[in-house]
């Protein structure tokens, strides 16, 4: 205990470089404003000797060296690690396989992260992984099928088309996938929705991809669905309305002016609906009177005045309507 107190005392002297909480039973460490890799190596090495450290944040590090990565790998109680917006070599990630308790890894905008995909696959305890803004592609995604406990994957603004998910067993643990701003293909989308435990899905078109056709997609029992900039027809909306398990739906930034919204009345479990920037009319919105469980309706950036929705407010008095 005295040894640990000595370490804490030394870290306090470097308060501009390290913050932590003394709240038992865990400590939260954050390394920031580090002037040099040498300073960071020293601080991370000291932090690795705090046996109770469960959360470490080294976001925005100029360079996470091999030495620092090795020290992090010695933090055997670590459950959450944030290395976003940092520079490190892909091989440095090999030290993280020793983190047997690691549940969450945030690695947004980490350069050359795809090179470390085989090492990420060695972190068997991982539940949540955020690789947004990295160079991850489908070949790198394929490695993640080995993360058998992975439940949530956030891969926004990457090179992922979705085809890498075709190698995942349909009964894998993945229940939440976000791939907004990715060059998604129809084959990729079909591969994703074939995952039987998928409950939460978020995606959109990107400048690099053609518009993904949603007609005929075999949707699983989703609870939340969020997509934008995807062309929607009456036939597609009719198919979407068959996902009776939906409680949360976002259809933003696409033209719904000529689409029959009344089919959405089939979604009796829906609690939150977003139709921002869709060109919908007040008359179409007033037709959603059968959504008796709806609690929130977001209509930002549409030419609808609040008073025009009086019929819907009367029919759904417990629903908050936001016109923006």
Report on the architecture of this protein.
The protein has 324 residues and is of the alpha/beta class. It folds into two domains: 2-244, Leucine-rich repeat, LRR (right-handed beta-alpha superhelix) (Alpha-Beta Horseshoe), CATH 3.80.10.10; 245-324, Leucine-rich repeat, LRR (right-handed beta-alpha superhelix) (Alpha-Beta Horseshoe), CATH 3.80.10.10. 20% of the residues lie in helices and 16% in strands. The chain is built from nine helices and 14 strands. Strands 1-2-3-4-5-6-7-8-9-10-11-12-13-14 form a 14-stranded mixed sheet, with helices on one face. Strand 5, helix 4 and strand 6 form a beta-alpha-beta unit. Helix 2 (37-47) runs parallel beside helix 3 (66-72). The longest helix is centred in the N-terminal third of the chain and has 12 residues, at 2-13. Residues 14-18 and 21-26 have low confidence and may be disordered. This is Leucine Rich repeats (2 copies).
Identify the notable features of this structure and list them briefly:
alpha/beta, 324 residues, 2 domains, Leucine-rich repeat, LRR (right-handed beta-alpha superhelix), elongated
Short description:
This is Leucine Rich repeats (2 copies). The chain is an alpha/beta fold.
Spatial separation of the terminal alpha carbons? 56 Å
- Regarding CATH, which class of the largest domain? Alpha Beta
CATH superfamily membership of the largest domain: Ribonuclease Inhibitor
The number of distinct β-strands equals: 14
SS content category: alpha/beta
For the CA atoms, what is the radius of gyration?
A: 23 Å
Strand content: 15-25%
The helix count comes to: 9
């Amino acid at each position: 205990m005295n040894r640990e107190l000595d370490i804490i005392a030394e870290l306090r002297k470097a308060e501009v470089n390290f913050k932590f909480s003394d709240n038992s039973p865990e400590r939260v460490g954050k390394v920031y404003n580090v002037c040099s890799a040498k300073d960071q190596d020293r601080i991370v090495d000291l932090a690795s000797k705090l046996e109770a450290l469960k959360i470490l944040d080294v976001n925005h590090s100029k360079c996470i060296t091999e030495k620092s990565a090795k020290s992090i790998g010695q933090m055997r109680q670590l459950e959450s690690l944030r290395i976003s917006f940092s520079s490190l070599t892909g091989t440095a990630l090999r030290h993280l396989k020793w983190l047997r308790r690691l549940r969450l890894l945030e690695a947004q905008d980490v350069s050359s992260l795809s090179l470390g995909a085989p090492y990420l696959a060695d972190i068997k305890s991982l539940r949540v992984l955020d690789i947004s803004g990295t160079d991850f592609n489908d070949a790198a995604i394929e490695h993640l099928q080995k993360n058998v406990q992975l439940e949530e994957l956030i891969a926004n603004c990457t090179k992922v088309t979705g085809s890498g998910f075709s190698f995942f067993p349909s009964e894998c643990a993945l229940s939440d996938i976000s791939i907004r701003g990715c060059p998604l293909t129809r084959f990729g989308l079909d591969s994703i929705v074939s995952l039987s435990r998928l409950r939460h899905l978020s995606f959109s078109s990107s400048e690099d991809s053609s518009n993904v056709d949603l007609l005929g997609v075999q949707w699983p029992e989703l609870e939340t669905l969020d997509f934008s900039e995807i062309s929607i027809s009456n036939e597609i909306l009719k198919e979407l309305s068959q996902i009776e398990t939906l409680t949360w739906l976002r259809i933003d930034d696409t033209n719904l002016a000529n689409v029959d919204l009344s089919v959405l009345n089939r979604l009796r479990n829906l609690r939150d609906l977003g139709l921002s920037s869709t060109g919908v009319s007040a008359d179409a919105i007033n037709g959603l009177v059968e959504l008796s469980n709806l609690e929130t309706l977001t209509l930002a950036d549409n030419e609808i005045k609040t008073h025009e929705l009086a019929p819907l407010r009367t029919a759904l008095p417990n629903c908050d309507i936001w016109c923006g």
